[in-house]
Write a structure and sequence with these properties.
Length: 107
């Protein structure tokens, strides 16, 4: 069985719970903890689930928001493929259709 995992990113929610509504408010707070990100990078960090996240950044966010990593990240299965076992019918697959293109007679 193949399972594709993804995360739900709760940074914006945790910020709102602390009364932080401007993404730019994180810039100086992160810098105080040795994490130097541009305003654009912080905006993307808040508004999109990060593909990569340094442990230093995660630790700084947890310190700023007084939370644990699992308060920011929720791991979920985003796509599951079911393996066929013997005796079970395979899931119906769409069949390819052959198409014939006919041109009008040009004579």
């Amino acid at each position: 069985m193949i399972r594709k995992m993804g995360v739900v990113w709760h940074l914006r929610l945790r910020m709102a719970e602390k009364g932080m509504f401007q993404t730019s408010a994180l810039v100086p707070l992160l810098a105080e903890r040795g994490v130097h990100l541009s305003r654009e990078q912080v905006f993307r960090l808040v508004t999109q689930p990060p593909q990569r996240l340094s442990v230093d950044t995660l630790a700084a966010l947890c310190d700023i928001l007084n939370c644990q990593p699992n308060d920011l990240l929720e791991v979920k299965v985003v796509n599951a493929e079911i393996r066929k076992t013997s005796g079970e019918a395979a899931p119906a697959q769409p069949r390819a259709r052959h198409t014939t293109v006919r041109r009008p007679d040009l004579t």
